[in-house]
Every structure is written in C-alpha cells, then in structure tokens.
C-alpha cells in the first residue's frame, strides 16, 4: 500500500492534499522522496519561522526531550516561566501570558478572558465580540463563529455560540458597538482574508476610541506576530497597546504552541482556564530557542535586509506580470500578490508547484507568501526565478 492510499484509507479527509512526500529540508528549501527540491514560500503556513532543519532548534528540542517532555501545569514549568518573561520583554508591555497549543486555542482564551472582564467590570454583563467580515480566527466552533467569513459558518456545524457580530470595514465598527459589546477582535494584517494590512491611523483611532469606552481591543497576531512583520509584534508598527494579543504559528518554530497575552492580569483565577499540553516543557523550550534565534537575526540587521529584498522582488514581479498581478499586499514577510480572478490564482499555484515553488492562497484571489524568516537571498532569488518561469507559461 502506497502512502497516498494509506492516507485516504486511514486519515479523515479534511484536507484537499497535494501528495508530494517531503523527506527533509534546509532553511527555505524542501526535498521530496524523489530528490526534487522546492523553494518554500509558505513555511508550513507561517509556522517554520527559523527554517527547516534548524540545528539550534533541533538541539534544544532534543536536549529537552532527553530530560522532560511533559509533566503538567499543576507544577512549575521552568521554560514556560522563562518564555512568558521573554515575551513580556519583547512586547514592552506589563502583561501576563497563558499558553495553549494553537492559534484557535489562543483566540478561544482571549474570548473567555474578554467575557469574564465583561462580567467583572460592568454592572450589566457585556459579552459581545465584534470582528470583521473578512477575518479568520480559527477552526473551533467558537472561533469559527468569531471568524467573519460566511463560508466558514456551515449549517452542518450549527448551532453556533451567540455573542458575535461582524462589520465590513473598520469604520463600521463604531456604529455597531452597543451596551452588550465587550471587545473588538481584529487582525492588523488579514491573512486568510487576502493579506490586507489596515492603515495605521485607522487602527490608532479605533484603539483610542475603544479605550475611552472601556471596550477591549483584541489583536489576533497568530500569523503577523513573532517578527513576521519585521518587529516582534505588528502591534509595534501600529504604535498601539492592545488589551489582549494572541500568538501562535512561528512562536516555537514548528512545535505546536499558542499564547494569550494580556495586560489584564487579574481577570483569570485558578480554574478559569487551562490546557493539558499547553506550555509544556518541550513547546516552551522550543519557543525560547526560536525567539533567541529570531531576536539575534533581527538585531544583526539580516531580517530587515530580507524584508526589503523580498519586497523589491514582489514589486518587480508585479510590474513584469501586471496582467496576472494587480497589486502587492501585506507587510514584512506576510505578503501577497492580488490576482484579477480566482481562476488565474489557481493556475499560478498549480504552475509554481510544477516549477518547484510552494506558495499559498489567501481570500478569493490573492497569492500569499509566508517564507521562513531566515530565508536566504539565494533562496529568494531562486524562488522568484521559478515564479517568473511559471508565470511565463500563463501569458
């Protein structure tokens, strides 16, 4: 039995898989079981922040696994405490951190925290969370409902939790806030929604308004966080201080992890929230090493150089293939090229794979790029060379 047959026989078919079988990787280059190499502009959907096969990360994980992988959150977990401290230092805020296992879990935790705030803070409990129509916040029942994209609200999974409402634009949020609204949850750069980065002033005005109304601002940085924007948080680029921030994806370089970060450190009490696996020895040791690597990379200037270089390549590609790409989207190494149609996007993704380049879809018609943050100039050059070759076949 081959592996594709095995997968289809024994794995629940929730993914429309491409059955390439990757065997190993070096930074932003993957190799399949036939020896073919691929430039990876996806990093496992923004997860492999320090590249494939990173020796420092592998050594840290191996060292931790030889000692302790897991006890439970009933006891002190030294690397968890250290990672929480490091995250607080990198944010520059006075915050507390809760660790889970994914972005969806982090957003669930943020919603629970907001709703308890709504009960403790106000005489009449506030519980409603406002999000945007093109948002994406996770795949659990609650975070699917928090997600504003109607296509995710399938009737098969109904009934959904109450207490969520959506607006089309940031400007529409103001008139949607009522006496039951406790929080607004947004992505500064919408990932699944088309790699759309919101204007800085629009976000700053919203943050100021919500603070005056004592309504929480939750920033979902599951994809934009952990240096993907060029800073530890995209929040820093927008010069705001949210009440709650969520992280996941690149935080541990590929080991499952999620984090809820909040300046409201006294809302949760023992027993209010928890996770069996969240913040265990293995994941938080991996997180510490991944952050150490990325912080050094940022301080060396190499991350900023990569961002500028990648941006130049995107703009040159858009200019060279303007019939295929209408605009350049996003910021940092969370980028997109908007196509005129979903059919063109599908053709580009298919052709790039044939040319040995991995890219992603975002929204209806945006080609998304989420390369490892440590990607080399040589890998960027080769990746765009392959993208160019693929695009030429479509003209």
UniProtKB/TrEMBL annotation:
UniProt key word Transferase: yes
Keywords: Aminotransferase, Pyridoxal phosphate, Transferase
GO molecular function, one term: N2-acetyl-L-ornithine:2-oxoglutarate 5-aminotransferase activity
Protein name according to UniProt: Acetylornithine aminotransferase
UniProt keyword Glycosyltransferase, yes or no: no
The organism of origin for this protein: Sulfurospirillum diekertiae
UniProt xrefs under InterPro entries: Aminotrans_3 (IPR005814), Aminotrans_3_PPA_site (IPR049704), Class-III_PLP-dep_AT (IPR050103), PyrdxlP-dep_Trfase (IPR015424), PyrdxlP-dep_Trfase_major (IPR015421), PyrdxlP-dep_Trfase_small (IPR015422)
PANTHER family reported for this sequence: ACETYLORNITHINE AMINOTRANSFERASE, MITOCHONDRIAL, AMINOTRANSFERASE CLASS III
Cofactor: pyridoxal 5'-phosphate
């Amino acid at each position: 039995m081959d592996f594709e047959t095995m997968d289809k026989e024994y794995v629940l078919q929730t993914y429309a898989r491409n059955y390439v079988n990757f065997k190993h990787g070096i930074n932003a280059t993957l190799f399949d079981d036939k020896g073919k190499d691929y430039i990876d502009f996806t990093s496992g959907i923004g997860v492999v922040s320090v590249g494939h096969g990173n020796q420092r990360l592998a050594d840290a994980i191996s060292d931790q696994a030889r000692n302790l992988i897991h006890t439970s959150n009933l006891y002190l977990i030294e690397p968890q405490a250290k990672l929480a401290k490091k995250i607080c230092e990198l944010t520059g805020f006075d915050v507390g951190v809760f660790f889970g296992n994914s972005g969806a879990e982090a957003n669930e935790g943020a919603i629970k925290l907001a709703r308890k705030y709504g009960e403790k803070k106000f005489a009449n409990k506030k519980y409603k969370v406002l999000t945007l129509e093109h948002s994406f916040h996770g795949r659990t029942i609650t975070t699917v409902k928090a997600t504003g994209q109607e296509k995710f609200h399938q009737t098969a999974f109904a009934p959904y939790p109450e207490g969520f409402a959506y607006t089309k634009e940031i400007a529409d949020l103001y008139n949607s806030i009522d006496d039951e609204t406790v929080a607004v949850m947004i992505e500064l750069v919408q990932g699944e929604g088309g790699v759309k980065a919101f204007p800085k002033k629009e976000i700053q005005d919203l943050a100021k308004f919500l603070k005056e109304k004592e309504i929480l601002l939750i920033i979902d940085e599951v994809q934009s966080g952990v240096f993907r924007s060029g800073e530890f948080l995209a929040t820093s680029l927008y010069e705001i201080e949210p009440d709650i921030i969520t992280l996941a994806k690149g935080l541990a370089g590929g080991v499952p992890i999620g984090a809820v970060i909040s300046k409201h450190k006294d809302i949760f009490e023992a027993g209010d929230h928890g996770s069996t696996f969240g913040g265990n020895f293995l994941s938080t040791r991996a997180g510490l090493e991944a952050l150490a690597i990325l912080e050094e990379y940022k301080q060396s200037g190499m991350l900023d150089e990569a961002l500028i270089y990648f941006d130049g390549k995107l703009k040159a590609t858009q200019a060279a293939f303007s019939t295929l790409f209408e605009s350049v989207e996003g910021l940092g190494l969370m980028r997109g090229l908007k196509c005129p149609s979903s059919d063109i996007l599908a053709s580009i993704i298919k052709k790039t794979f044939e040319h040995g380049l991995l890219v992603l879809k975002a929204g209806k018609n945006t080609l998304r790029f989420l390369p490892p943050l440590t990607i080399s100039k040589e890998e960027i050059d080769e990746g765009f060379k392959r993208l160019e070759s693929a695009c030429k076949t479509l003209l």
